[in-house]
Amino acid sequence: MRIEKIQLDQIRNTELTVYLQEESVELAAIKKRPGMLIFPGGGYEFCSDREAEPIALQFLAEGYQTFVLRYSVGKFKNFEQAFLEAEQALALMHKQADSWHLDTEKIGVIGFSAGGHLAAALANLGRIRPSAAILGYAALLPTMAEQMGLQAPNLLAAISPKTPPTFLFATDEDSLVPIENTIICQKELAANAVPFEAHIFQKGGHGLSLGKPVTANGTNTNVATFR
């Protein structure tokens, strides 16, 4: 594995961390790999470590080139700025596709909670859009944006036939992001004939990440039940 860190904005401390597969003569037939752009959650107040590198390593193990974006949060919280950074990251992946051995037809995006909000924005409003989107307990309802103190477009209303295939997951026990976010999203996807799959689990609180003990924060006793 090779890791690169690309600073997007020194003042806002925004950064794209790149995790690349090592080339091998034993894998000479593999010229390009799929990519996954990762947006950690954190309510636009911080970027969760539990939803950053652990996700990158999991997809890396499946043969992806992976990318973690630490976007503008905290005192620099601003949806439009974070959205521009997301677009910048995806554009950079396309620009560097040859050197990073990326298949630009297979670049997905995954986001958790607030990161799912940003991932959905990129999937529905981006000038360059990902090939697929994974939204984990994503904060998608307009009321969620208000709770996070954001001025942001209605992402559910932005869903259209141009929206890429989308995978959704959430839990009924999530007290921060109600499952209505996922349910209404899947209804909009269906109404627009967008390929989708949605999993709603009963157990597990907010912030499951991988749903394994290795990404548990120590307070969620049900974290291991999401498999």
TrEMBL record:
Domain of life, per the record?
Bacteria
Q: Does the keyword Acyltransferase apply?
A: no
What are the record keywords, sorted? Hydrolase
Where does the BD-FAE-like domain start and stop, copy by copy? 36-124
GO-annotated molecular function? hydrolase activity
| Chaperone is among the record's keywords | no
Q: Which Pfam family, an example, fits this chain?
A: BD-FAE
Question: How is this protein named in the record?
Answer: BD-FAE-like domain-containing protein
